Amino acid sequence: MNDFSDCGKEFIISSGYLKQLAQHFTTSHENALLSRVKICRATGSLFKPERTIFRLRVYDMDKHLRCPGKDLCDTIIEVKSQNGSIDMDLERYKIRIPNQDFFIAVEWLKIPYNEKKMKSLPGSKDPYLITYTPSIGWQSADEQKNEMWELNYRDAWVQTAKFYGRKQALISATVKY
Question: How remote is the C-alpha of 72 from its chain's centroid?
């Protein structure tokens, strides 16, 4: 679901206020097993690849708010990578998708390992802008595509269409029935 062939040129990154980025998926059957997840991320240059540690989260859909709800995995899935496309086998976690709608999220870790400093624009109050890896690929979506959600610093899920237009995260999922 939501398969992609290349990472494109647009990426979303966190300055510490965006905690998670989630992509909505719909399966054709209930009680599916999440088998694989693929995530597209920016890697930087060949000589200085962008390293990152992040957490992968899987959520059921909150039936009332239609946003990420209950966490479906009781294990912390932490990913350390320098690769552009991350392809993970998740069968050992035995993550069952109880309903047809679910979300896969990337959780940014605001730690020194993930920190990137960039010079701020002239006239800015702070001399540096600090961001955190990973940089997750995203692209424009049409009406048939899934939605992208973000967990902000207030711990509230907000659909990204309200800020960026209709987009989808370059996160794909494979399920087994």
Answer: 16
CA distances from 24 to 58, 60, 61, 144 (A): 10, 10, 9, 12
112 phi/psi in degrees, rounded to 5: -55, -35
Amino acid at the residue 51:
R
Over residues 140-167, the pLDDT tens digits come to 876 656 689 999 989 999 988 666 667 7
Separation CA 99–CA 162 (nearest Å): 26
Give the single-character DSSP code of 156: -
| Measured distance between the N- and C-terminal CA atoms of the chain, rounded to whole angstroms | 14
Q: Of 60, 29, 17, 40, which Cα lies nearest the Cα of 176? A: 29
Q: What is the pLDDT of residues 8-27, one digit of tens each?
A: 788 888 988 899 999 999 99
Bridge-partner residues for 148, per DSSP?
Answer: 23
> Where does residue 34 rank: exposed (0-12), middle (13-18), buried (19+ CB within 10 A)?
buried
| Prediction pTM value | 0.91
Which residue type does 20 have?
Q
Nearest to 105 by CA among 153, 150, 50, 168: 150
